[in-house]
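A common beginner's mistake is to predict each chain separately and then try to dock the pieces by hand. The better habit, illustrated here, is to supply every component at once so that their relative placement is modeled jointly.
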Amino acid sequence: MTQSPLVIDKLSAGYGDTQVLWDVDMRIEPGEVVALIGSNGAGKSTLLGAISGVVDTWGGTARYGDTSLTGLEPDRIVNAGVVQVPQGRRLFGSLTVEDNLRMGAYLRRDREVEADLERMLTLLPRLRERYDYLAGRLSGGEQQQVAIARALMARPQMLLIDEMSLGLAPVLVDQLIELLAQIHATGVSILIVEQDVQTALEVSSRAYVLETGRVSLSGPSPQLLDDPQVKKAYLGV
Amino acid sequence: MSAQAAGTEVALRIANVGMRFGGLWALSEVSFDVERGSVLGLIGPNGSGKTTLMNVISGVYKPTTGDVRYGGKRIADVPTHEVCHLGIARTFQIVKPFASLTVRENVAVGAMYGRYGGKRSTRASFERAQELLEIVGLARVADRPASDLTIPDRKRLEVAKALALDPDVLLLDEVMAGLNATEVDEALELLRDVNRRGVTLIVVEHLMKAIVSISTTIVVLAEGKKIAQGAPSDVLASPQVVEAYLGSRWVKRQEQLKQIEAQRAHAAQVQPPDAHA
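With all components supplied together, the output reads:
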């Protein structure tokens, strides 16, 4: 697997007349786990959307290795190896777990899709038990597992995960963190957006803080965990 | 009224409730009482039956076994809209506003057709809606379409819509999911205010900080069964609850917090604010 850095340079984006992101700079090295934290409305999901091509950018660039992502259609971005797990899971509720997973491999033309499916079911045994269930009938935790597995079926080199822990039991978040560690161990770079700042900073090596569309702070995660400003604004201690 | 410790009154009694879907018992033999004016926190892993129980109480599902009693009256067979007229309201995990109506109109619909069953005038309903929007902090966006709202505001609207039904008992299904620390504090303040106005609350939430801070009693479900019930500190100390729900990271975090508090207390003792060298 060829690994490349994701480099975001002075990226601006918005909706209609409203600018949401202002000159955002960010860099994720191959194999890194990086967290993006900030309040509701700070622009975290907009930034993920701008990287994965579902939000139009106004200025600046996002590059993955030699590929410029800005202006590319979302399917091309997936083909380039950058894949998003969207907030709220966004599964195909009336399709089975199997079909949701296969949709993740929709763009692939290689012969290893079946083997990858088997790998997902080994990684997430619960999905084997639920293989023929409609995704819409699963519990929240099971749905999040399907959403992550569906993204992995696209064979990402860079995984963008939006609000993984939302609505999940603490013990289940523990399991998903284990899963992230396993995915990371296979060489995939990960950018996580989390409302649960403590968790985000515990699982990442570096983090960026987004405030009203601008990067206000960045650094090693352990350092941000001890930062008085971060503690007060995001950890409530 | 059934016998209960002096000074307390049962608002809602869940008696031996079981709910079967095909071959799966989503709930089995679940029993507990909710005291009037209290806040009951309902926690458990995803898929443990919390939302199913909400659906049984609000009349969406008729339980396979057992009974739900409200003010001594059996309501397990009562259809949803009548449960609402009786004074039980709920919010939905996936918020469901009328997207094309304004925020105020959304709340006015509840005020008109809820407890009052269509007998409240349009004018009175809009007045009530305005009051509630002020309570939940949405007056500033009252005339915007509901579809325009941000996530925290959608959650506020969900609470305002439910309050518009003038409930005695309010079921809240994850109204704090997706909110940050500051927004959670605001939401808790709102719920305490609602509770002070005499509304009994049943709160389903995964944010333990919020649950611990607001609940009088916590009930824990796992795989459709009640595995614990009691005061927050007792329930959270239960090894069974830690294993089924809280997980080891949570325990570790609590120990860290305790250490930080102990250090702070120690520092304060060693160096009281008015101490001289």
